[in-house]
Write a structure and sequence with these properties.
Helix 4 packs across helix 8 (190-207), helix 11 packs across helix 12 (304-311) and helix 12 (304-311) crosses helix 16 (379-391). The chain has helices spanning 11-15, 22-30, 60-63, 84-98, 114-126, 140-148, 163-175, 190-207, 231-238, 254-257, 290-302, 304-311, 315-320, 327-343, 363-373, 379-391, 406-418, 425-430, 434-442, 444-455; strands at residues 55-57, 68-73, 106-110, 130-135, 152-156, 181-183, 218-221, 243-249, 284-288, 350-355, 398-400. The chain is built from 20 helices and eleven strands.
């Protein structure tokens, strides 16, 4: 039996929550006390449903660079991660443009974690049944949260690096049955790109107001689905010389040199060039050691006193970091530090990066670290990790994607993979032209009135 749509915000309202009626904003903020309240759909934004971006400027005593590293924090999004944004956008587009209704079909969310959590959460709020397809060796906290949001799990073998198996499972079992399932395919559907270019891109630009020269010299992010990298298109539209920096695990260096392997950075390193990655707008590619991300996370969780006493970080700044970062967030921070060093950026320059979620999804990752380490780290170990991971971020394993045919290489990798999943070579070749991405972005002007119309039904 079909049920009415539970409405939510337009792209414009996610970009600027102040466009929402004041009464609705007030009710949405009050709904934060109960994450199961559908009014939380209106809290899908980087600005806490106000006009200030949720961000953190890292202490330079920790980063060791003079450039300003500004971290957008996704922890205040409903469900605790900004990945809920593209999950909502994809489902909202289906409702507005294809007349999908609750009770019509089951929602499928292929993911290694955060997007799947977001898909389960949005489906629950909107009244859909959801199945999350993901590897069977992710952190237990991720499975628990999906079940908390009434999502079912379809687990495929492996870990973060085996997401290609979830993609194969999704296409063979679910995409092939469109009468039964609607697939929120984050790796390939353009709502993910539109959300991040329109919403995250504007948040990044707003986040540097009052900091340094108020411009963005670089934007650094690990791809995952590559949706987040779409913010780079918004940044480059205003600052064409800004560098978009792509990060991936050294242990699974697929984009770097075709490498395939297991790694511990949950949320990134998916053994593929995703379909929605605008590779021609990426400038630098850097490798990050997975163990560094886990050690860096532990320094912030257990070593605020070390940061303060032995690195000189102001005590209040050290304590503000606590609980804010998971491994992929630390990966992005390390990448931002490497970027500052590589580009020789100074105190007026700003680098923006992303904290997708927060530590609450990773206590089991810390437990695994303790087992490998022979116990919890000592203060001396924490100091050593802080200095090697952050202050010692190296300039090795960096590729300039603007040289040596690197863009064409990545585009060919995309073509080789995605034609296997039914996309035409002609369609993929169009993605080599910025006009393709600009046209997809411009569709927001047509989509937003339809999403708004759903609210009046």
């Amino acid at each position: 039996m079909l049920r009415p749509i539970i409405p939510g915000p337009t792209y414009a309202e996610m970009r600027n929550p102040m466009l929402l009626p004041a009464e609705l904003r007030e009710k949405a903020n009050a709904a934060r006390q109960n994450e199961l309240d559908p009014l939380n759909l209106y809290n899908i934004n980087w600005k806490n449903t106000g006009d200030e971006v949720e961000k953190l400027v890292l202490p330079k005593e920790m980063t060791g660079v003079s450039a300003n590293i500004v971290v957008l924090s996704g922890r205040t999004f409903p469900s605790g991660s900004m990945k809920v944004g593209p999950a909502y956008a994809t489902l909202a587009e289906h409702e507005a443009m294809e007349h999908l209704r609750p009770g019509d079909r089951t929602v499928i969310g292929p993911s290694t974690g955060n997007f799947g959590i977001g898909a389960a959460y949005i489906s629950m709020l909107k009244g859909y049944k959801a199945i999350v397809v993901m590897p069977d060796n992710m952190s237990k906290e991720r499975y628990e949260r999906i079940r908390k949001y009434k999502g079912d799990l379809d687990l495929t073998p492996g870990t973060e690096s085996d997401v290609i198996l979830t993609l194969e499972r999704t296409h063979s079992e679910y995409v092939s049955k469109p009468d039964k399932y609607v697939t929120l395919a984050q790796f390939e559907l353009l709502p993910n790109y539109r959300f991040h270019r329109h919403v995250t891109g504007k948040a990044a630009l707003d986040a540097v107001k009052g900091i340094g020269n108020e411009r963005i010299a670089a934007f650094a992010s690990a791809p995952g689905s590559a949706g987040t990298l779409a913010a780079g298109d918004a940044i480059k539209a205003l600052y064409p010389d800004s560098k978009i920096v792509v990060l991936e695990p050294r242990e699974c260096s697929t984009l770097y040199n075709g490498g395939q392997g297991q790694h511990r950075i949950e949320g990134i390193g998916d053994k593929m060039v995703t379909l929605i990655h605008n590779v021609f707008n990426s400038d630098l590619l850097m490798l990050i050691h997975d163990e560094d991300t886990v050690r860096g996370m532990e320094v912030i969780q257990s070593g605020a006193h070390i940061l303060a006493d032995r690195l000189g970080v102001p005590g209040d700044a050290a304590h503000r970091l606590y609980g804010r970062f998971g491994p992929s967030c630390i990966c992005n921070i390390i990448g931002a530090i490497k970027t500052a060093k590589y580009l020789g950026l100074g105190p007026q320059d700003n680098i923006v990066t992303i904290a997708t979620d927060s530590y609450d999804r990773y206590p089991s990752v810390s437990e695994s670290l303790y087992k490998r380490n022979g116990g919890k780290p000592t203060d001396d170990q924490l100091e050593m990790w802080a200095k090697s991971v952050f202050l010692g971020a190296s300039l090795g394993e960096i590729v300039d994607l603007n040289k040596g045919g690197q863009h064409a290489r990545l585009q060919q990798m995309k073509l080789d993979l995605w034609t296997k999943f039914g996309y035409s070579a002609d369609y993929i070749r169009q993605m080599a032209d910025q006009d393709f991405w600009d046209a997809e972005y411009e569709k927001i002007k047509e989509i937003d009135p339809l999403i708004a119309q759903v609210r009046s039904m």
